[in-house]
Amino acid sequence: MERFIENYTGKEFDLLVIGGGITGVSVAYEAASRGLSVALIEKNDFASATSSATSRMIHGGLRYLSIFEFRLVRESLRERRILSDIAPNFIHPLPFIFSMYKKNKITPLVMKIGMMLYELFSFDKNWVRDKSKKIPHFQTISAKKLKELIPIAPESELLGGQLYYDCSSHSPERFTLAFAKSAVKCGASVANYTEMLDFLIEQNGLLKKVKGVLALDKLSGEKKQIHAKLVINCSGPWADILLDKVKKNTENQELRRSEGIHIVTKKLNETYVFSGSTAKGKHFFLVPYRNKTLIGTTDKEYIGKPDDYKVTKKAILELLEDVNQALEQPQLIKYEDISYVYGGLRPLVEDQTEDVYNSSRKYEITGEKKNGIAGLLTVEGGKFTTSRMLAQKAVDKIFRILKYPKQKSISEKKYLHSSEIEDFEDFFLKNTQKYPFMTSQQALYLSKSYGNEIDSIIDLGKENEEWLKPLNSDGENLAQVVFAIRNEMAKSLTDIVLRRTGIALLGNPGKEIIEKIAQIAAKELSWSVEKTVSEIEKLEQILAIPQ
User: Could you tell me how far CA 329 lies from the centroid of its own chain?
Assistant: First the structure.
């Protein structure tokens, strides 16, 4: 992968995508795979905002049944199966336990009916290529059984629970990158650290025609005009702000934004995701994650500029209080138990509901002709799970607008880049045999993260055997750092340790590891001493728990 902006000379693309989150890269891949010439720009790094602030799940959205979003649930469950097919190294069945208590608003009978509906909507869940990805049917379990599986679950008034399956997303960051790589493989041009400054406008009477954008290469400081027949705004929480550049109406920002935060803490449960309910009736998850527990998520309206967003101590304390109260152990998780925290903003389409928790996660694909603007589409709303389907619908619309002969979508059947794996369990076992110096955990982690590119990681060890020495219990190593820089457009320490690898996703890995990574990055990217120090300082600030 190379940043096209560095050598761009003025080519007109069929489509220019603004935004390198999961929506943008999915649209770029969908369009390029159908033969369109495509460019994508992202002002920071791929998956550096909302797309990396997830609960690491691919799910149907069980709770959306309660607000009668049946179409969204069915589409999500269908996409869960498709993503498992096209990205078998990233998507894996995950058992959930939904607890039921006397105090809950939803009765056990209603919950069971909900599970039956969920099962009905996922009737095709086992029509999968990889038979190791088959998902079992749900079970109603007793209070005694639930306590055996989840010992920290409160015992008072416990009625039992539902054991069911959705899917985990091994690495949303690398999953997003896989879509970007797939787009590039199909001919798309992509560039991170390229900020859209303004639209290029051609006035035709009362109609404004968007002909591209003026963009800033944030690494070189150079500004370039990027030309395209059609521009699609996939900037998520920034969508309305970009629209205001062409509408020239900064007082009317229609998009609602919801904050969601997650914390990584000590191990509280194993194997099963525990779904509990707060005193306010909102759900939270305790997710087993790399020998720790991932807790999330909040769903609270955010007022302010999305560029100013950051996780606050107040938000963390509120989440801790809600979870500790729900688990009836006020001191179960202390602030000092937190090793890492992250958050992001979700764009929401509707504004009718008072509480964003009950807002839909549906999406909209809109043109701007009603505002006298042609050549511009905007995608708003949506969720990670349905990003491929959203892209398919958006590109269908793009073909109609461009008046090109319709091309059938192939993304439902085609493996993502480096995910061409027919049987993941067999693939993993072969890697343990092929690379006997790796522990089983390391082979599993790298097999999930890199798919067929695992061989490229190991090959880098021929340059320096130190690069293959494990840095953590998952076996992450310095070869991944080199690979990220040389092959995956990693341009900063945060790109490397938070998005290309998971080295810092459990918290600060320590000064020694950070300095080793920084030394390699400095050599590979020709950083000065001052730049290297600055990169370390920025990373440490990001990893620091708010005080």
Answer: 31
CA–CA separation, 83 vs 34, rounded Å?
19
Helix, strand and coil in the chain, % to nearest 5? 40, 25, 35
Tell me the β-bridge partners of 379.
365
Q: List, for residues 397-412, the tens digit of each pLDDT value.
A: 999 999 999 999 999 9
Please give the C-alpha separations between residue 354 and each of 65, 85, 204, 318, 360, in angstroms, as whole numbers: 19, 38, 41, 20, 12
Closest CA to 17 of 252, 217, 180, 209: 180
Domains in the chain, please, with CATH? 8-50+173-251+361-402 (3.50.50.60), 255-350 (3.30.9.10), 424-543 (1.10.8.870)
Asked whether the whole model's pTM tops 0.90, one would answer yes
User: What residues does 458 pair with on adjacent strands?
Assistant: none
Strands (E), 102-157: 139-141
Task: Give SS3 for 301.
Answer: strand
Kind and range of the H or E element at 393? helix 387-402
Sequence-ordered strand ranges (E) for 382-451:
none
Question: What's phi and psi for 164, nearest 5 deg?
Answer: -145, 175
Task: Decide: residue 314, CB within 10 A, 0-12 exposed, 13-18 middle, 19+ buried.
Answer: exposed
pLDDT 10s digits, 472-517: 999 999 999 999 999 999 999 999 999 999 999 999 999 999 999 9
Residue 153 identity: A
Indicate the angle between helix axes 22-33 and 172-185, nearest 10 degrees.
20
Name residue 33's amino acid. Answer: S
Q: What is the sign, positive or negative, of the torsion defined by CA atoms of 2, 51, 521, 42?
A: positive
